[in-house]
Amino acid sequence: MVPHQFSRCHSILKMLERSTSTTNSFTRKLSSDSSSYVSVQDDEEIKELAILTLQKKPINTFCPNLLRDFTIAIKNIEQDKIKRAVIITSAFPGRFSAGLVLPSLLGKTLEEVKELWRWLQASWLSVYGTRLVTIAAINGHAIAAGTAFAIGCDYRIMAEEDYLAGLTVIRMGIPVPFWLSTQMANLLGKQEAAKAVQLGTLFTSHQALENGLVDEIVPLNRVFEKARQEVPRWLDIPDHARVAIKQDLRQSLIDRVNEVKDVEVDQNAALVMQPNIQQNIARALKRLKERKNNKPS
Amino acid sequence: MVPHQFSRCHSILKMLERSTSTTNSFTRKLSSDSSSYVSVQDDEEIKELAILTLQKKPINTFCPNLLRDFTIAIKNIEQDKIKRAVIITSAFPGRFSAGLVLPSLLGKTLEEVKELWRWLQASWLSVYGTRLVTIAAINGHAIAAGTAFAIGCDYRIMAEEDYLAGLTVIRMGIPVPFWLSTQMANLLGKQEAAKAVQLGTLFTSHQALENGLVDEIVPLNRVFEKARQEVPRWLDIPDHARVAIKQDLRQSLIDRVNEVKDVEVDQNAALVMQPNIQQNIARALKRLKERKNNKPS
Amino acid sequence: MVPHQFSRCHSILKMLERSTSTTNSFTRKLSSDSSSYVSVQDDEEIKELAILTLQKKPINTFCPNLLRDFTIAIKNIEQDKIKRAVIITSAFPGRFSAGLVLPSLLGKTLEEVKELWRWLQASWLSVYGTRLVTIAAINGHAIAAGTAFAIGCDYRIMAEEDYLAGLTVIRMGIPVPFWLSTQMANLLGKQEAAKAVQLGTLFTSHQALENGLVDEIVPLNRVFEKARQEVPRWLDIPDHARVAIKQDLRQSLIDRVNEVKDVEVDQNAALVMQPNIQQNIARALKRLKERKNNKPS
C-alpha cells in the first residue's frame, strides 16, 4: 500500500492547478440549496465563507434525512471553488444538537438501522476529510452526534454558559466507533479521552475548554460572531499548503475507516437490534418524553 | 492481518450472550483464593467489585512468586462472572510497592532471569488487557513495577502526602520495555513521557497529578474509600460497550507486545546478565541495605 | 519488515561492548573542526559535553552550506566516543535562527532546490536520531528551521524575553513535512499542533512554555548556563539504556522519513519551483529587506 504521505503532493499540485484556473465561471447558487433541515448561506462579507445551519426543530436530532442533507450540503460547498471555509452552527440558540434521533434506532428493520449508520459514517467523514476550513460554532448543548460533528471540525467555539458536550451513547450500551475515540484522543490526550468515551462523560463548557474538547468559549450571543472572526486567520494560509498538512494529519484515520466501514455498519446495526439495547433505547426515549411533559408549557 | 477493530463486535456479541446466560450457577469462592502474597476479597457492598491487596512484607517487592500470584488473582477475578471491577491496593499504608525485588536479578541463572521477565510481561498484560474495570488505589510509594501496574489500570487514585511514583529502573541501566513508555506517553503526552522514562523521573503525588500520571490525589486515609466511590460510575456503563472501547484503545499495544515478547525476554535477560548491569544492581541493593540499617529500629 | 523494537537490543549490546572497549585511544580534536558557519567546542568542565554554536552572520539563516556544516558537526561529535551530549545554541544573543535563507529558494534550478531539501532532511535526522543527549539553548528568536532543529532535540530551554518560535513556512505556501508536524504533535498534543502547523503560529517564549513547545524558559543571559546545568541529569543515566528508549520513541518516525525521503525531495522542490510560490518567496524577501532598511542604523 502506498503510504499516505505519497498522495500529498499529488493533491497539492492539483489544488495549485485549480487555483490558477478560471473560478469565475462557476455559478454560485448555494443559498438556494437549503433543505428544510439544513440551510446553507453565503457569508455577507467573507465571500470564501459558507454558513451551514442545522435547523431541524426543535433540537437538531440527527435522523437519516438530516444526515443526508448535511452531507450533501458539505459536498455542495466543497464543489463551489470560491468557498474555502464553513461555519457549522444551529438555528436554535441553546441547542446545537441533541444527537441521533432515538426513534430511528427503535423498532426498525436491520436494513433501516444500517442505513442510519452508513449516513453517520459518510457525514462524519465529509466533515473530517473536507478541504474546507471547518469551524463549529457550538451555540448550545452538543450531545453525542452533536459532539461528534464538532470534533470533526478544525476549530471549535462553544457558548460559555452551562451547556454540555460529550459522547454519551455508551450509556445505552452502544460504544462509539473507533474513529470518534481516536479523534477524542487527538483533542483530550489518550487517558482523558479513554475516560470520556468509556464513561460517556458530559463536559460543561468550562470543562470542555480545560480538557481541550473545544478551543474557545465565549458568551452565547457572541459565538457566531467569534467564529466569523476566526475565519480570516485560516484564509490567510494558502489552501494547497493547509490542505496538504490537514491530509498529513487526518488521512490515515480516514483510510482506516474506509477499510472497515462495511463491517462496522453490519456490526453496529446488529448490536442495535439486540433486545437489551432496544430496551435501553426505549427507556431513554421514555425518560426524554417524561422530562418534556413535566416542563411547564 | 485482521485489523483489531474487526475483533471488536465479536467480543461484544459474546459478552452480550454471556450477560444473558445464567450467572447465578457460578460459585463464588474468591475470598478463599488468597495466597500469602496477594489477597482477594469481595467488596462488602458492591458485589461486582473485588479488592486485590498486595501483602508481601515489608514493601511489596515483586519476585516471580508475587508476579505469578498477582496474575492468577487477576485471572480468577476475571473468571467470576459476577465481578466487573477490581481495586488494586497495598496492605501497607505508605508503601504501595517498591518494584522488582533486586535479589531476583542478582547472581541468578539466565533461565531464572528470563522467568522473571516472562511473569512481568504476563502480569502486566493481565492488568492492561482485562475486561474488568481496574482502579489503582496507590496508598503510598509506587516505584518502578509499582508504577508499571498502576499505569496499566483504567484509573489511578494516589495518596496526596509526599509519596513518590515513577519508572526508575533505567538508573541501573535497564531500559523500560516499549509497552511501558507507550503507556506513559498515553498518560503524560509524548515529550513528558520521553523525559520521564529516559531520566527515570520520580514524581511526588502532586507532580503525578499535574502530569497526568494519576487521575486524582486524596489524603492517604481516604485513598481506598475514594477508589470504592469511583467504581459505580464505571459500573453504570454496560460492560460489553465499555470493553469494546477499551479494546479499541488497548488491543493494538497488546498485539505488539505479543509479537515480540519472546525476543524481549531473551534480550532483557541477556542485558541483566551483563557484568556492568550486575554491578549496578549490587550497588543499588547495597545502598538500600545501608539505608535500612541506618534507620532507628 | 522487522518491527523497530527488534533492533533495540542489538544496539544495546553493541553500546555495552563499546563502553567496555578502550575509549582512551580515541584522539579528540573537536575544537579544531569548526567551519566558519558552525563552531564545535569541548565544554570546559563536562568532558562528555560538546557545544555546537551556529555562527553564520547575522541571523543564522540556513543555506545548504550551513545545513551541511551543521550535519557534519553533529556526526563528528557522535564519532567522538567521549562525547555523550551536545548543546545547540547561537553565537548571536537574541537570534537563535531565522530559518531557511530565502534566496536559496528563489530563482534557483530544480536541482539546487532539491539539494537544499536533501540537506534539510539529513540535518534534521542527524539531530533527531543521534545517540547524543541533545539540548537546544534557544537564546533568541527561533523561526521556521530554527524551531525545526530545536524540536528535534531532547530538551529545550528558551530565553524568556519576548522571543518568537514557530514553524511559519506555510505562510509562503510551503507545508512543513510530516515529520515536523508529527514531532510538533509529540510536544504540543495533536490538536494544538494541528493549529500551529496549519496556521504557521508564532509563539512567544511564555506561550511556547505553556504549550509544551519548550521545556523551560529563563532570562536570556542564563539560557546557556541553564542548558549546561541540565546536562548532568541526562549523563547520570547509562547511555545504552537511554539510547534504547530514545530509539523506541523515535525510530518509527525515522523509518517513515527514510521510506519517502526521495519522493518528498522531488515533490517539495517541484512545489517551490511553482510560479506562485516563487512570487510568495520574492514578496517575503522584499518585506524583510524593507524592514531592515527602515531600521535606524
UniProtKB/TrEMBL annotation, chains A, B, C:
CDD domains: crotonase-like. One of its GO terms (biological process) is fatty acid beta-oxidation. SUPFAM superfamilies: ClpP/crotonase. It comes from the Eukaryota. Pfam families: ECH_1. GO terms for molecular function: isomerase activity. One of its GO terms (cellular component) is mitochondrion. Keywords: Isomerase. PANTHER family: ENOYL-COA DELTA ISOMERASE 1, MITOCHONDRIAL, ENOYL-COA HYDRATASE-RELATED. Belongs to the enoyl-CoA hydratase/isomerase family. This is Putative enoyl-CoA delta isomerase 1, mitochondrial-like. It comes from Stichopus japonicus.
